């Protein structure tokens, strides 16, 4: 693995991209409501991105399994859709939905990427708890990740917390590091796999990771829809998804997508 460590100056440039991602997600959170289509959310995300002089990170990403390039600026996934939901003018949000919005930009040559899950109106208690547990999983990363720690230790703590709450970690999807490209080495799974145990990651100052727990209410099993992009739970039960881009510093974790102003502008 050729891990690309970032300088403090480069991290500040990534924070600018991350701050734009945060601002867009905050804006979309005010739009998520019954009757609003996922295409309307996507159009607004793209407008805000382009107005800020940035590129939409996901739009045009080549597909696999015969799928065409990703057509949206954001991945918008509802209920049993885990990730990579394609925005559509025909999919309107309904009361009782949970809506995951994953959005990324490239600004000044550097990437930012984050995701939130929004609750629409009244949902069952177990679904509300699912969303809370998924969000809280990131707090484990913020607390534990620091130079000298092994990623498997952090991933095991995430997995044990999720499973201890009665939910399932999606075990076939994970993010990589992030920088000038959306996907850089190393891979950072939210679970402990034989591959991770064989090729563990020693966290180092200057690493920037995009950490995104995906948690299912039921089984961890997933499938890909006929569109070649949307990942669904096999049992049709809801899934929640959160993400932050984080830098590993001498003091621990610095969250780059939480909207804070940079310590110094670059």
Task: Give a structural overview.
The protein is α+β, with helices and mostly antiparallel strands and 266 residues long. It has a single domain (8-254), classed as Creatinase/methionine aminopeptidase superfamily (Creatine Amidinohydrolase), CATH 3.90.230.10. Helix content is 28%, strand content 25%. It contains five helices and 15 strands. It has helices spanning 8-29, 38-51, 125-144, 151-164, 194-198; strands at residues 55-56, 74-78, 81-83, 98-107, 110-119, 168-169, 175-177, 184-188, 208-211, 214-216, 222-224, 231-233, 239-241, 244-249, 252-255. Strands 1, 2, 4 and 5 form a four-stranded antiparallel beta sheet that branches. Strands 3-12-11 form a three-stranded antiparallel beta sheet, with no helix packed on it. Helix 1 runs antiparallel to helix 2. The longest helix has 22 residues, at 8-29. The model has no long low-confidence stretch (mean pLDDT 94).
